[in-house]
Design a protein that fits this description.
- This protein is 50% helix and 15% strand.
- By secondary structure, it is α+β, with helices and mostly antiparallel strands.
- It has 3 domains: 114 residues, Acyl-CoA dehydrogenase/oxidase, N-terminal domain (Butyryl-Coa Dehydrogenase, subunit A, domain 1), CATH 1.10.540; 98 residues, Butyryl-CoA Dehydrogenase, subunit A, domain 2 (Beta Barrel), CATH 2.40.110; 146 residues, Butyryl-CoA Dehydrogenase, subunit A, domain 3.
- A 4-stranded antiparallel sheet has the order 4-5-9-8, with helices on one face.
- Strand 10 and strand 11 form a beta hairpin.
- Helix 3 packs across helix 6 and helix 8 packs antiparallel against helix 9.
- The protein binds 3-thiaglutaryl-CoA and flavin-adenine dinucleotide.
- Flavin-adenine dinucleotide (FAD) binds next to strand 3, strand 5 and helix 10.
Length: 388
């Protein structure tokens, strides 16, 4: 007898969504099925960011979707989470593009920017006509941004910026970089425009992960930035760290999509693959592994939905985001690796999705706070002691 439960949604999370949230999920899911899945494998193999998808993404209102006004959709946090989940069902690289544009570039401009900066960038970014990147990580150690070396000094009416950033998503395709630098007045955010003298953003080649996403280094050699391009509303590390909270929130949802893609394909495979005279899915050990994946996806879904409802109620605490980012990325990475194994030799082929998701998730578990960083955030919450 066929099960009446959806194997990818055992606890019927879908029925907890509002009509608008369900519509957002369906719309993005259709986009991913029609536009992303047919090309993403080739993009990954060729190390190519599918820039041609940007107009479609923008048209659906997925850029800066949580912002009210400035041409943005003004959707709630759960909808943003579902957007991330469906995009990452396609590929973590595409979700990364949207995370960075929305949570790490549009969010700080919206939250800390002047009205002129908002008017200049937000509508164009929502339309996908201007792209942004977020430069916090430096080559000597991303986990400790408090040890930032990039610095800026006032000179006349301008600032002069020196230093470098590493592993920056969208860096080489960005029209504007939100760059965090130490100054005599605290940590400040600078909007550095592409083409500014002394600013270079070379792409990092030969990545084995997030190959359908652009990752770059940023170099600043006496770059002059006018005061009008400094974010006026922020002068401490709290600024960039609060942007990370937005992005990490979305990343708590995204990997659920990657895990869905892997488990869905594995269920089809184990049903048709015959070994020892019966389908693989009819053996106890395989069923135990499939069941364990479904259990872990279910707990991740419940965590993400609760996180979203707390965020929409304005009650979210950064430690809760750390628990969810840690749990849900670990869940997806373990499932992608296990699916890869259950596909046997076929699992190393790009014809099946798990190996691509597995490789991508190696970045996702590192960026936006490594797993250890999030464990230490939770440890600090429990003990009151910072053990970083
Ligand atoms: P600490 O003293 O704890 O905090 C400094 C100030 O910031 C506040 N704060 C936060 N605010 C909002 N959200 C958070 N998550 C916050 N965490 C801290 C804090 O209250 C304090 O405020 P105030 O007013 O008292 O000064 O800072 P710390 O130097 O001890 O560092 C703590 C630690 C290790 C957790 C932090 O440095 C950290 O999160 N490190 C990891 C860095 C990281 O995640 N980098 C990510 C770079 S961006 C990226 O990876 C993009 S990938 C995107 C993609 O492609 O999808
Ligand atoms: P390190 O900080 O050097 O850490 C190395 C190892 O040491 C890790 O395992 C870490 O967990 C461990 N470690 C560190 N401190 C401790 C401790 N106290 N106790 C125990 N273990 C510890 N950054 C941006 O600013 N913008 C971006 O757009 C961006 N995009 C990225 C895209 C990709 C594909 C990748 C891979 C990274 C991106 N990053 C970005 C950078 C990312 O945030 C950093 O890689 C991450 O924060 C870790 O920094 P790190 O690589 O310097 O590793």
């Amino acid at each position: 007898m066929a099960s009446s439960l959806n194997p990818l949604d055992l606890f019927d999370i879908r029925s907890e969504l509002s009509e608008e949230e369900a519509m957002v999920q369906d719309t993005v899911a259709r986009f991913v099925d029609d536009q992303v899945l047919p090309i993403i494998r080739e993009c990954f193999e060729k190390h190519r960011f599918p820039k041609e998808l940007i107009p479609g993404i923008a048209q659906l209102g997925l850029l800066g979707s949580s912002i009210d006004g400035y041409g943005c959709a003004g959707l709630n946090a759960v909808s943003y989470g579902l957007i991330c989940q469906e995009l990452e069902r396609g590929d973590s690289g595409l979700r990364s593009f949207v995370s960075v544009q929305s949570s790490l570039v549009m969010y700080p401009i919206y939250s800390f920017g002047s009205e002129a900066q908002k008017q200049r960038w937000l509508p164009a970014m929502a339309r996908g006509e201007a792209l942004g990147c977020f430069g916090l990580t430096e080559p000597h150690g991303g986990s400790d941004p408090g040890n930032m070396k990039t610095h800026a000094k006032r000179q006349g009416g301008d600032w002069v910026l020196n230093g470098s950033k590493m592993w920056i998503t969208n860096g080489s395709v960005a029209d504007v970089a939100v760059v965090w630098a130490r100054t005599d007045e605290g940590v400040k955010g600078f909007l550095v425009e592409r083409g500014t003298k002394g600013f270079d953003a070379p792409e990092i080649e030969n990545k084995m992960s997030l190959r359908a996403s652009v990752t770059s280094a940023l170099f600043f050699d006496n770059v002059r930035v006018p005061e009008a391009n400094v974010l006026p509303g922020v002068s401490s590390l709290r600024g960039p760290l609060s942007c990370l909270s937005q992005a990490r929130y979305g990343i708590s949802w995204g990997p659920i999509g990657a895990a869905h893609a892997c488990l869905k394909q594995l269920l089809e495979y184990t049903e048709t693959r015959e070994l020892f005279g019966r389908p693989l899915s009819h053996t106890q050990l395989v069923q135990a592994r499939l069941a364990d994946m479904a259990r872990r996806i279910t707990t991740a879904q419940l965590l993400a939905l609760r996180l979203g409802r707390l965020k929409d109620a304005g009650r979210l605490h950064p430690t809760q985001i750390s628990v969810a980012k840690w749990n849900n990325v670990r869940m997806a990475l373990d499932i992608a690796r296990d699916c890869r194994d259950l596909l046997g030799g076929a699992g190393i082929s790009a014809e099946y999705v798990p190996v691509r998701h597995m490789l991508n998730l190696e970045s996702v578990i590192t960026y936006e706070g490594t797993e250890s960083v999030h464990q230490l955030v939770v440890g600090k919450e429990l003990t009151g002691v910072s053990a970083f």
